[in-house]
C-alpha cells in the first residue's frame, strides 16, 4: 500500500470517521430542534432567533478577527448573499413557529423535502438537466408531501402551511448556495447569521411585546441554540471533507429518526400514519435523486 493511498482523504477509515461525524452532527441538529421546541413555548420566535444569532456571532468572532472583517463584508454579488440570508432567516423562523404547534417528526418531514424542491427547480434556475428518472422521483416526493399535508382535510392548518413555506425557503437558500459556491464557507455562515439577527431584530422592533426577559437558565439554553447549531454546521463540513458525499449525505435522514424519538421522549408526540407514509416517500425520493446525481457525475469526469 502506497503512502498516497494511506493518506487518501476518502480511505476506509476516513470514510468511517466521516460517517460518525455526520451522525453526530445530525444528533446535534436534533438536540437544537428539541431545545427550540421547548423554549418557543415561553419565548417568541424573534427572541429565540435574536439570542441564537448573537451566540453564533460570539463563536464566529475569533474567525472574523483572524481574517479581518473586510473579507466577510466585501463579497461578490452582495444582493444574492442578502437574499440567501433572508431566505435562511425566514425558514428558521418558520421552523420554530411550526414546531411550536406540530410534533417534531411532522415538522421535520417538510424540511426533508427541500432537496426534492431543489431538484425540481434546478432545471429552471440553474439550467441543470433532469432526466425522466429524477422527474419521476420528484413527483413521488411531491406525493409524499401531499400525503403528509393531508389535503383531504377541510382546510390546511396554519402551522402546516408555515412549515411548507419554510421548507420552500430552505430550498431557495440551497439553490442560492450553489450559485455562490465559490464563496468561503465561513463567509456564507457569517452572512446567514447576520441576516437572521437583522430579521429577528426587525420583528422585535415591530412587536416589542414579543420580548420576555429570561432567567439565567433560560439564557444559557437560548445561547446554546446558536452554539449547538454552529457546531453542527462545522461537523457537517468536516464530515464532507473526510468522506465522499455519497457516504455521508444520506445520513441526514437520521434527523427523522431522532425527531420521532425525541418527540415521543420529551413531548409525548406520536406521529400520524399519514406523516409516516409521506416521510417514507420523501426519504426514498430524496435518496434516489441524490444517488442518481452521483451516478451522473461519475459519467462526466471533466465536470
List low-pLDDT spans. Answer: 1-10
Measured distance between first and last alpha carbons: 29 Å
How many beta-strand runs? 0
Give the count of helical stretches. Answer: 14
Query: If you average the pLDDT, what whole number results?
Result: 83
- The computed structural class is mainly alpha
Output the radius of gyration: 20 Å
Count the domains: 1
Global geometry: globular
Classify the beta-strand content into a percent band. under 5%
The biggest beta sheet is recorded as: none
Task: Lay out the secondary structure.
Layout: H1 3-6, H2 12-39, H3 45-67, H4 69-73, H5 78-101, H6 104-111, H7 114-125, H8 132-149, H9 158-179, H10 185-206, H11 216-242, H12 245-248, H13 254-267, H14 273-298
How would you characterize the overall build of this protein?
The chain has 303 residues and is mostly helical. It has one domain. The chain contains 14 helices and no strands. Helix 5 packs antiparallel against helix 9 and helix 6 packs antiparallel against helix 13. The N terminus is likely disordered.
Short note summarizing the structure:
The chain is mainly alpha-helical and 303 residues long. It contains 14 helices and no strands.
Which short descriptors sum up this protein?
single chain, 303 residues, mainly alpha, 14 helices, Drug/metabolite transporter (DMT)-like permease, transmembrane helix
Amino acid at each position: 500500500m502506497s503512502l498516497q493511498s494511506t493518506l487518501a482523504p476518502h480511505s476506509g477509515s476516513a470514510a468511517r470517521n466521516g460517517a460518525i461525524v455526520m451522525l453526530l452532527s445530525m444528533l446535534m441538529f436534533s438536540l437544537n430542534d428539541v431545545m427550540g421546541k421547548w423554549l418557543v413555548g415561553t419565548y417568541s420566535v424573534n427572541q429565540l432567533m435574536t439570542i441564537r444569532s448573537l451566540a453564533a456571532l460570539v463563536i464566529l468572532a475569533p474567525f472574523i478577527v483572524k481574517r479581518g472583517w473586510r473579507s466577510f463584508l466585501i463579497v461578490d454579488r452582495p444582493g444574492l448573499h442578502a437574499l440567501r440570508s433572508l431566505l435562511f432567516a425566514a425558514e428558521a423562523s418558520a421552523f420554530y413557529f411550526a414546531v411550536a404547534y406540530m410534533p417534531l417528526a411532522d415538522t421535520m418531514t417538510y424540511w426533508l423535502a427541500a432537496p426534492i424542491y431543489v431538484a425540481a427547480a434546478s432545471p429552471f434556475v440553474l439550467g441543470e438537466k433532469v432526466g425522466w428518472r429524477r422527474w419521476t422521483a420528484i413527483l413521488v416526493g411531491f406525493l409524499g408531501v401531499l400525503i403528509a399535508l393531508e389535503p383531504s382535510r377541510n382546510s390546511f392548518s396554519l402551522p402546516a402551511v408555515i412549515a411548507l413555506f419554510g421548507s420552500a425557503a430552505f430550498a431557495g437558500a440551497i439553490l442560492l448556495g450553489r450559485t455562490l459556491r465559490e464563496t468561503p464557507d465561513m463567509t456564507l455562515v457569517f452572512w446567514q447569521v447576520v441576516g437572521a439577527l437583522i430579521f429577528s431584530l426587525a420583528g422585535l422592533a415591530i412587536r416589542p411585546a414579543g420580548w420576555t426577559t429570561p432567567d439565567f437558565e433560560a439564557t444559557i439554553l437560548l445561547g446554546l441554540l446558536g452554539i449547538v447549531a454552529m457546531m453542527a454546521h462545522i461537523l457537517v463540513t468536516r464530515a464532507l471533507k473526510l468522506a465522499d458525499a455519497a457516504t455521508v449525505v444520506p445520513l441526514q435522514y437520521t434527523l427523522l429518526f431522532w425527531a420521532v424519538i425525541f418527540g415521543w421522549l420529551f413531548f409525548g408526540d406520536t406521529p400520524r400514519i399519514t406523516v409516516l407514509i409521506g416521510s417514507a416517500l420523501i426519504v426514498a425520493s430524496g435518496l434516489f435523486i441524490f444517488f442518481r446525481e452521483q451516478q451522473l457525475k461519475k459519467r462526466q469526469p471533466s465536470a
